[in-house]
Amino acid sequence: MIALQVGSSSVSVWSLAKLWWQGELKGDNLELQIFLNLRLPRVLTAFCVGGLLGVAGLLMQVLLKNPLADPYILGVSGGAGLGGIALALLLPGVFAWALPAGAALGALVVIILVFGLSGFRGVVTMERLLLTGVAMSALCSAFVSLLLTFAAEGRFRGLVFWLLGELEGGHAGLLMLAWVLMLLLTLPMARMLNVVSMGDDVAFSLGVSVRSARHRLYWMSALFTGIAVAAGGMIGFVGLVVPHVLRLLLGQDHRLLVPAVALGGGVFLMLADCVSRVALAPVQLPVGVVTAMVGAPLFIVLLARRGRV
C-alpha cells in the first residue's frame, strides 16, 4: 500500500476506493490513470523482480554453501546484461523478446564460466570464486560499453537506463507468471536444498545426486536471474541481503526460507523503489543505486565477520 501511494505524484488508494464505492469514479480521473497505467505495474514489477533475484541468490548460496554468493557479485547479472544487450542489438526487429532471451542465455554462460574457472585445478574456494566473479563482471561491463558505442542514438538511452535498474512495468503480467513458476519449481526442491546445504558427503549418503542437483541449481539460478535482469536491469545485492537477513530470522529450513525469500525480496525491492522515487522527486533515481547503497556495506560487514578483510 505504501509503494502504491508514494511517488513524485501522490495517489490515494483510499480516495479512489471511496469514489468507486460511491459510483463517482470516472475513467478520465487523473489519479486513476496514474494508478492503473504507471504505479500498479511498476510495483508489481518491483515485487516480482525482487523475488526472482532473492531466490536466485538463495540457490547460489546453497550451491556454494556460502552466504556471500549473489548473482550481482558473482558477475551473473553482468552476464545477463551483456547477453540481453548483445541479442537486442543483433535482433532489433524482435527487441521485446531478444532482450529477455539474451539475458537468460548470458546469465547461464557466465554462471558456468565462474564456477568452472573458480574450481579449475582444485576445489572451489570463496576467495577464488569472488575474484573470478569480479573479473567476469568487469569483462562483461567492458563488452557492454563496447556494444553500447554501436547502439543507435534512439536506443542508447533506453539501454543505459535499463542497465542502471529501471522498473517500467511493461510486462507485469508475465512477471507475475514467472514469479509463480519460480515457486512451483523451487518449493518441491526445499527438502533437497536442506540436504545439499549440509555438504556433498551427507547429501550423497542420503541418496541425493549431487551432480544432478548442482546442474538444476545452475539452470534455475541463471533462469531466474535472466528474467529479473531482463525486466528490471542490473539490480544488485537483493540476492545477498534478503536471504542472509531471513536466514538469521527464520533459520536454515528451506521449506520456510524459499517462500519467505520470494516474498521478502519483493518487499525489499518495492521499498527500494519507493526511496528511488521520492528521494530526489520529481527526478527518479535508478533503483539499482538504492539497493547497492544498502547491499554493499552489508557485504563488507559480512566479509569482515568472516575474517577475510
Automatic annotation (TrEMBL):
The regions listed as transmembrane in this protein's record are 43-64, 71-91, 97-117, 129-152, 172-196, 217-242, 254-271, 283-304
Highest taxon in the source lineage = Bacteria
Q: How does it sit in the membrane?
A: Multi-pass membrane protein
Kindly state which keywords UniProt assigns to this record, in alphabetical order. Answer: Cell membrane, Membrane, Transmembrane, Transmembrane helix, Transport
* InterPro entries referenced in this protein's UniProt entry, alphabetically: ABC_BtuC-like, ABC_transptr_permease_BtuC
Localization: Cell membrane
Family as reported in the entry's similarity comment: Belongs to the binding-protein-dependent transport system permease family. FecCD subfamily.
Q: What is this protein called?
A: Iron ABC transporter
